[in-house]
Amino acid sequence: MGIKHYDLEPQNAHAAKCVFKLDTPNTSYIMAVVDEDNFLGHIYYGSKLKDHDVTYLLRTGEAPFVPSKNNRDKCSFMDSFPMEYPGHGLGDYRDGCIDVISQEGHRGVSLSVVSHKICTGKPDLTGLPATFGGAGHCTTLEILCEDKALGLVVTLMYTAFEDVDVITRSVYVENASKKDLYLTKVLSACLDMDNKKFERMTLHGSWARERHIQRQKIGFGKYAVSSLRGEPGHQEHPFMALMTEGASQDAGEVYAVNFVYSGNFIVQEEVNQFDSVRLTMGINSEDFCWKLGTGEGFQAPEAVLVYSENGIGGMTRTFHDLYRNHLIRGEYKDKKRPVLINNWEATYFDFDTDKLLAIARQASELGIEMLVMDDGWFGNRDSDNRALGDWQVNEEKLKGGLDFLVKKVNKLGMKFGIWFEPEMISPDSDLYRNHPDWAIAIPGRRAALARNQYVLDITREEVRDYVYECVAGILRSANIEYVKWDMNRPLSDIGSAKLSADRQGELYHRYVLALYELQNRLTEEFPYLLLENCSGGGARFDPGMLYYSPQIWCSDDTDAIERLEIQEGTALIYPLSAMGAHVSDCPNHTVGRTTPFETRGYVALAGTFGYELDVTRIPEEDRKMIPSQIAMYHKYNDLVRSGDYYRIASYRENHRYDCYAVVSKDKKEALVTYIQVLNCPNYHSRRIYLKGLDPNMKYRIEGEEEEYYGETLMKAGIQVKNLWGDFKGRLYHLKAVL
User: Fold this and answer.
1) Which run of H or of E encompasses 175?
2) Which end of the chain is more exposed for a tag (fewer CB within 10 A), N or C?
3) For the Glycosyl hydrolase family 36 C-terminal domain, which residue ranges apply (predicted)?
4) What are the phi and psi torsion angles at 225 (to 5°)?
C-alpha cells in the first residue's frame, strides 16, 4: 500500500518516462509522464495490480502517436489522450479542468510535469475542510506542473489511504509570472477511462424530498449535475457514480466521486467520439473568476474517489468508513448523541418560557435528554418575516432571560440546545436598518427575497465578526450544549460592497470560505458543543459540513415513509451517524400522512434519533411508547453508529417494502429494519435474504430459539410474516452464538 514512483527506461516504446502507482488495500491508481512535453496521463484505476508498468494502456504506440513522433497531428493526440488534469483551448476539445485568462485576454492552458514529492500522512488544505490522516494511515503525492507561457504553477495532490479504498485529490494553483492572471475554472479531479457500458447514478430532489436516487445508462455527449445556489442545494448533490452495466448492491464495478465542499459545484460525465469517458468534479466555473496577482495562489477543495468491485454496497461502506474515521471530528465523533426534543413542529413561533418548561418537564419524565429551542426566541421574531440579524433574547417571551430557562431545564436533568440562522438578515430588522450594505446585492438592483430574507455578506470581516459574536455571546451567556445552525435560502444577486470590480467573481467561493472560518472558530472556542448543520433541511448535507458538525439535519420532511427514500439516498454516501432523524407528529406537517408511532421510531433509529412534536399533547398511547423507543435507541445506537450498512430491499424500487441492516465490524451482531409500506392481500410471508453476516457463525434472532448459520440466513433467507395494515415495521436483532 502507499505511493511509489518508477522511472522507466529512456526512449520507452510507449513514450512514458516514469510511472506513479497509488495503492489502497484493494485498489490501484496508476498514471505516467509522457513524451517531451511531460504530459501526465491516466493509465488505470481499479482492482489492485501487482504490475506498475501498464503504460501500453495509454495507446501512445498507435495513431495519432505522441507529438514528438507526429507533431502534425498534435490536436488529435490532445483530443484523445487520457489526461490526468486536462487544460483548455490547445487541442483537447473535451471539457478541461483549468482555464486561465491572461492579462492580454488570451485563454489556453497546457501543463507539463516538472517534479514530484511523496510524504507520509496528509497535509491540511488552508481554509478548507478535508479528510485527514497521519503517518500509517495514508501517503500523499504532490506533482508539480507548470505552463511556462503563462507562468502558472499547478500542484496536483493525491492521497492514498491505507485502511480504506479511497484516493483523494485536490489542486493548488499559483501565479509565478509578473502579470495578473484570472482563473476562470479550476476543478479538483478528472478521471479519463474507457467506457465499460457504464450506468450513471446521481442524487436529485427538492425541498422535503432531497437526495432521491436516479440511475441511467450513459451515452455520447455530456451530463452534468451542478449548483449555482451558493450551496449544494436540495435539488442536486455533489456526487456521481459510474457503474458497469447491471451493477447491484453486491456485484459490479463502481467508480464514485464526492466533493468536500459546501458551495457551487459541478460534476460532469462526458462520452467522446472514441467512446472514452471523462468524469470531472470541482467548483462550478459559471460566475467564478479568481484574480491571481504575482505570487498569489488558489487552493481548490478536495474530491474523494472511491472504486468498488463489490457493487454499490461496497462503495457505500467505503464512504462511511472514510467519513467516520477521517472527516468527522470533535467530541461526538465516536459518541452517542443525546436524545433531543425540538419545539419547532410543537409550537412554531407560539411559545414562551412556561410552554417550553411544560414540554421539558414531560419530556424529562419520559427519558428525553435535551430540549432544543428553535426559531422565535430573539428580537421581535413572531413570524419568519422579521428580525433575522437581531440576535438579542426576547425577554417578553423568555421571562427571566435565557440563563433562567436553561438552568430550569438543566435542573430537570436535561441538556439545552438552541437554533440560529446567523448568515441571514431580514429587511424588517434593526440590523438591516443600520447596515443595509451588509446584505449581498448588486448596486442599482433590488435584491430578490427568499423567505422574506436577504443573505449577509460574511466575506466582509466586520460582518463575519458581528455574526460570530452574536452566536458566541449567546453561548457564553448560558449552559448551551447544542446548536442547530440553519440557512433557509440560497444566494442570489451576487455583489459585494467591499470587493473590487475585478474580484466580484470571487464572492461565491469567498462566502463558503467565510462560512468555514465561522464554524471553525465556533468549534475551537466551544469544543464540547454538539453542532448540527441545517439548510432548510438537507440543502447543505455535504462532506464539507461534516468536517465541522458530526450530524446534519437530513430533511425538513419528517414523515416516516418519505424519509425511507430520503434516507436511502443519503445513506448511499454518508454514515447513519450523520443523519439527523426525528419522530414527529401526525398527521405529518409536510404531507399530512398518519403513520404508527412505532414505525416512526423504527425509521428515525437509522439516524441520530430525537423528537419533533409537543409531547404534552400527543395521544397517551404514543406518549407511553417513548420510554421504550429511547431504550431501543440506547440498546442499538452503538451498532447503528459504527456498523457496516447493507441495503437489502428498496421501497423506491419495489413500491412495497424497505429493508436494510447494520452489521458490527466483528460480524457478531446485526440489526435488520423491515418496513412494510403497503400491505398486499392474499400474500404469503416475504422472504428476506440477509447480508454481511459471517457464513460460518451461528446466529440467534432475539425472541426466537432457533439457531442458524450466517450462510443459511444469507442464502436461504428468513421469512417475514405479513404485517396487518400499511406502514408497519419490525426489527430483527441477531447475535452470534458463541
Assistant:
1) strand 166-175
2) C
3) 659-734
4) -115, 130
Strand order in the sheet with 657-663: 644-649, 657-663, 669-676, 728-736, 698-701, 707-709
Q: Which three cell numbers stand for residue 735?
A: 447475535
Q: For the chain, what's the residue count?
A: 738
Buried b (16+ CB within 10 A) or exposed e, 51-73: ebbbbebbbbeeebbbbeeeeeb
Cell of 134: 497521519
Instruction: Give the tens place of pLDDT for each residue, 618-655.
Output: 999 999 999 999 999 999 999 999 999 999 999 999 99
- Specify the pLDDT at position 195: 97
Q: How far is CA 364 from CA 374, 620, 633, in A?
A: 18, 16, 16
Contact at 8 Å (CB) between 697 and 668?
yes
Buried b (16+ CB within 10 A) or exposed e, 234-243: bbbbbbbbbb
Grid look-up 407511553 returns 624
Under DSSP, is residue 361 helix (H, G, I), strand (E, B) or coil?
helix
SS3 labels along 64-99: CCCCCCCHHHHHHHHCCCCECCCCECCCCCCCCCEE
Which residues face 259 on adjacent strands? Answer: 303
Average of per-residue pLDDT across 493-497: 97
Relative to beta strand 98-101, strand 112-120 is: unpaired
- Cα 36 off chain centre by: 40
Per-residue pLDDT band for 683 (boundaries 50, 70, 90) equals confident
- CB neighbourhood size of 413 (10 A): 12
Per the structure block, which three cell numbers stand in for 368?
A: 428525553
To the query of whether residue 287 is one of the catalytic residues in this protein, the response is: no
Q: What are phi and psi of 551, to 5 degrees?
A: -145, 155
Tell me the pairing of strands 669-676 and 728-736: antiparallel
Cell numbers representing residue 352 in the block:
414562551
> Given this model, what pLDDT does residue 14 score?
57
pLDDT at 738: 83
Q: Give the list of residues 6+ apart from residue 666 with CB closer than 8 angstroms, or none.
A: none
Hey, what's the cell of 507? Answer: 464572492
Cβ atoms of residues 460 and 498 within 8 Å: yes
pTM over 0.85: yes
pLDDT per residue as tens digits for the range 129-172? 999 998 889 999 999 999 999 999 999 999 999 999 999 999 99
pLDDT(585) > 60 = yes
Please confirm, yes or no, whether 556 is among the known catalytic residues.
yes
Cβ atoms 8, 55 nearer than 8 A? yes
For the stretch 714-738, pLDDT in tens is: 999 999 998 999 999 999 999 999 8
Of the candidates 35, 99, 486, 542, the residue annotated as catalytic is 486
Q: Distance between alpha carbon 81 and the CA centroid of its chain, in Å?
A: 32
Sign of CA dihedral 616, 535, 581, 634: negative
Distance CA 11, CA 13 (A): 6
- Band (209; pLDDT cuts 50, 70, 90): very high
